[in-house]
Amino acid sequence: MTHTIRRLTRADAGPAAQLHAAGFADPWSAASIETLIDTDNVLALGIEGEGGLLAFVLFQSAAGESELLTIATSPARRGEGLAGQLIEAAIPVLAGAGNTRLLLDVAEDNTPARRLYVRLGFTEDGRRKGYYSAGRPSPVDALLMSRAIGG
Ligand SMILES: CC(C)(COP(=O)(O)OP(=O)(O)OC[C@H]1O[C@@H](n2cnc3c(N)ncnc32)[C@H](O)[C@@H]1OP(=O)(O)O)[C@@H](O)C(=O)NCCC(=O)NCCS
Question: Which residues does ligand 1 sit against, CB inside 6 Å?
Answer without folding.
Answer: 23-24, 55, 71-73, 78-84, 106, 110-113, 115-116, 119
